[in-house]
What we know:
single chain
Amino acid sequence: MTDWQTRVDAVWDDESLSDQARIEEIERLAAEREAGDAVALFERAGAYDSAGRETEAEPLYRAALEAGLDPDRHTRAVIQLASTIRNLGKVDESLGLLENEYRTVEPGGMKDAAAAFYALALASSNREREGLAIVLEALAPHLPRYQRSVRGYAAELVHASGRMPTANTGEASEPRR
Length: 177
C-alpha cells in the first residue's frame, strides 16, 4: 500500500471528522495525484457519497470507472455507483450495473457485496423474492450445514411464484428436519 493510500485510509478511519471535513481532506489528498487519476476520483466519489451528496458523487464514480481501476476497486466503484443511482431513482440502471457485476465478479472477494446490493436494487424494483434468492445464494456457502437446502429454497423462491418454500430438500450429511 502506498503512503498516499495509507493517508487516505486514515481519513476514512477517523471517526471524529465531520462529513465536510472528510470531503475536504480527501479533496486535499486527491489534489496530490494527477488530474483524472482513477483512484483519486474513486476516493472523492466515496467522500461525497458517504456525506449523502449523491449527485456530486455520481459523476466522480463514472469518471473513476472510465479512467480504469484495479479489479477490486472497480467492483467497489460499480457497487457504490449503483447504490448511489438507486438512491437517486435510477433503479433500472442500478439493476443493470449490479446484475452484471454480480454475474461476472469472481467468487470470494466482493461477490457477496455485489449480491447484497443487487438484492437491494431488486427490492427497490418490487422484486423482493428474487432479491431474497440472491441473498440466500450468497449466504449458503458460509453455512456450516444446510447449504444444499438453502440453495434449493433460493431456487424455489424464484421458480415457485406466490408461495414460500417449505419442503426440506434434504442433504445426505444432515438429518431431515
